[in-house]
Amino acid sequence: MTSPNRRTFVKGLTSALALGAVGSATGHPSDGEHPNFSEGHGIHRHDKTKNTDLVGFHTLGNVGSESVSGGPDNPLYGMITDVWLEGDLGFVSMQTTSEPTGNRGVAILDVSAYTRAESRVELENAEMTVLSYIGNETEAGAGNSVKVSDDGQYLVFSKQAIGARYGRPASPSTEDQDAPGPNVTGAEVYDISDPGDPDYIGSAQGPHAGFHNCFIHQIGGDYYVFGVQGVGTGTAGVQIFQITDAGVIPVNFWGGDDLPVTDYGTNAVGGLFGPIPGFYCHDFFVHRDPKTGTPLGFVANWNFGTVVLDMSDPTDIETLGRGKMNVAHYTQPAPALVDGKRLLVAGQERDESPEGGPTYSGYVNLFDLDAIIEGEGFTSVEPLAQWTLYDNVEFANGTYAYSPHNHDVVVDDGDTWIVQANYHAGVRFLKIEPPGEGGTDGWHIAGRRVRTTDGNPIRQERKDLDGDGEEELVTTFETDRNGVFTSGFENARLAEEAKAYYSSHVEVPPESATDDNAFPNFWDARSLNGVTFGAGQHTGLYALAADPMEVGTRTAADVSVTRTDDASAFTSGQTNRIDYEVETDEEVTIRDRLPSNWEVTGGDATTTYDTGDGLVVEFDETVTARSGSRSVFVTVDGAADEQVGPVQFSVEADPSRGGKDWETLAGSVETLFVAPVST
């Protein structure tokens, strides 16, 4: 008889364990004030904040905590780009760095003091700590993007031969490009099971120019890496790789061949590239459909809009439709249903008007994802709502000063927020409002200051109405609503207020910045537990608490699950009993992914659904704190290696906050062999 196959998977405070490995110290000031906010540390606010507090800051200049090595006297000599959050860890990519902090690519941080805080008060003494760095040895490789798998197992870091600074070359050498290991421009993959000591496992080697952006996601039990190449005949699009025992191997390419268009016009992508005729691809995101669990891909496809893909089988992708817009720069869906609807958010990136002169600063668009997914054939939809910071503003070519850049979409205490990194305009907090909320008839993105009235406009000008240093477009009307002439704007009424924003920065030594871009300058922002982490390109990583968002909405759990199968090899048609022993400090729901052709025949009560890449088996009864067990009987089917997992858990969430948020247990995918029935 074959012995049982038993494996244990753990999700917990791995970052705290790694902290001891790197020997970093932490400390808090005795008076309760945050260590970096005193005059001696040079905080510089500009008075451009509203309903938002700076609760933490780290320059990323050295390993250690904010108070020990994260102040302005320990700057990073370089420029940071993406920020990503996974559990209690934060990850920040660096486009380029120089001595004395040279050859750095990604900073890995313990941010648990913020992501596990139960109230705003706890943030007063919270600190983030840099645990380790991933290097960047490629001379011309600008590190633009970092992403992490849902289970925290793997990290992908993309590099591209653009934006070289500090005297680095503008393109990779032949030796760099052809050399094995982390020298090429492309996407590097690391095992971060120990975040204090990342382990390089391979590179997704792209075209000569590398990848501008990247993503990683687990589909059907396998890990897939996605590299985005913007331009190039035959290479522009999303290149898809799989992490295998043999390395990171290419398995597919999506280049828009199935899109119902052949003429993309000219993609004016700003001073960095100049006008580019034809197809241009900028970014990519993967997300599980909150209704069906199906993996969906979202392509920021510039002037063709934001394209939606069915990624159930990454080697056989189905194109579903698009949200119509131009200059689609970054796209990310809402993580849960909003008023019963699936929604998609996509932002532009604008550096100037194509005609020159004043222009709008760039739209953030809200799309009906239900209509795209459920439509017949390829479905194109117009935005449900739009937001822009300025209708009529002028900024220098190539600066992108007031343009949107990357964003996060999060659910906080029942509300859905777009956390928008807006370059020089800082981090903006925009609320998605369903029809009827906030006095609107249709869908609305709230978070912009607008003054309006009735009558015929005779003059427009920009004025600082609130004394906060930010000008607004003011319209002077010929008559007020009662028909009385007015020569000013005194009768204009405030129709909507900005919810919250942070448009300031911490002063660092000027020589540590990569260039003379305006400060502040935020590339990316991510939120968890009511705390937002903003990537200040030339200064460091900011932790922000916005008044409209509640701190402490995330309930983190430390969970260990041991899965035991009857064996590791079966004959098709056999019954396999799978036992799950659970240890947890919170009440959780457990689920597993089995092959689609297996059938549940008994055991504890479960709910099953097919996500396109597997059969998800979710136990109906939660496991209470401390320990518990669940079992399921399945009939196995197949005639080859079959992948089981990953195991996931969820702390039961208030349905008003968007329902369950599943976390994946690292290493919980295993292969069972199924032999065909002999004839």
Brief characterization of the structure:
This protein is mostly beta strands and 679 residues long. It folds into 3 domains: 14-24 and 47-448 and 498-546, YVTN repeat-like/Quinoprotein amine dehydrogenase (Methylamine Dehydrogenase, Chain H); 452-496, no CATH class; 557-675, Immunoglobulin-like, CATH 2.60.40.1510.
Write the layout of secondary structure elements.
Elements (H helix, E strand, L loop, with lengths): L4 E7 L2 H9 L20 E2 L4 E2 L1 E7 L5 E2 H4 L8 E9 L2 E9 L6 E7 L1 H4 L13 E7 L6 E7 L5 E7 L13 H5 L7 E6 L7 E7 L7 E7 L2 E8 L7 E8 L2 E8 L11 E3 L6 E3 L5 E6 L6 E6 L5 E5 L7 E6 L4 E6 L9 E6 L15 E5 H6 L4 E3 L3 E3 L19 E6 L2 E7 L5 E7 L10 E3 L3 E3 L4 E7 L8 E6 L15 E4 L3 E3 L2 E2 L15 E7 L2 E6 L3 E7 L12 E7 L3 E3 L3 E10 L3 E7 L4 E5 L2 E5 L4 E5 L6 E10 L5 E4 L3 E4 L11 E2 L5 E6 L4
Parallel strand pairs: 23-27, 43-53
Antiparallel strand pairs: 1-42, 2-38, 3-37, 4-41, 5-9, 6-7, 7-8, 8-9, 10-11, 11-12, 12-13, 14-15, 15-16, 16-17, 18-19, 20-21, 21-22, 22-23, 24-25, 25-26, 26-28, 29-30, 30-31, 31-32, 31-37, 33-36, 34-35, 39-40, 40-41, 42-44, 44-49, 45-48, 45-51, 46-49, 47-48, 50-53, 51-52
Q: What is the CATH top level name of the largest domain?
A: Mainly Beta
How many helices? The count is 5
Helix content: under 10%
CATH topology of the largest domain: Methylamine Dehydrogenase, Chain H
Nearest-angstrom radius of gyration? Answer: 25 Å
Biggest sheet layout: 6 strands, antiparallel
Q: Proportion of β residues?
A: 35-45%
At CATH's second level, what is the architecture of the largest domain?
A: 7 Propeller
Measured distance between first and last alpha carbons: 22 Å
Query: Which consecutive residue ranges, at least 5 long each, have pLDDT under 50?
Result: 14-46, 169-182, 268-276, 449-460, 475-495, 653-659
**Which structural class is indicated by helix and strand composition?**
mainly beta
Assign the CATH superfamily of the largest domain. YVTN repeat-like/Quinoprotein amine dehydrogenase
Estimate nothing, just give the exact number of structural domains. Answer: 3
Q: What's the mean pLDDT score?
A: 80
Silhouette: globular
Number of strands: 53
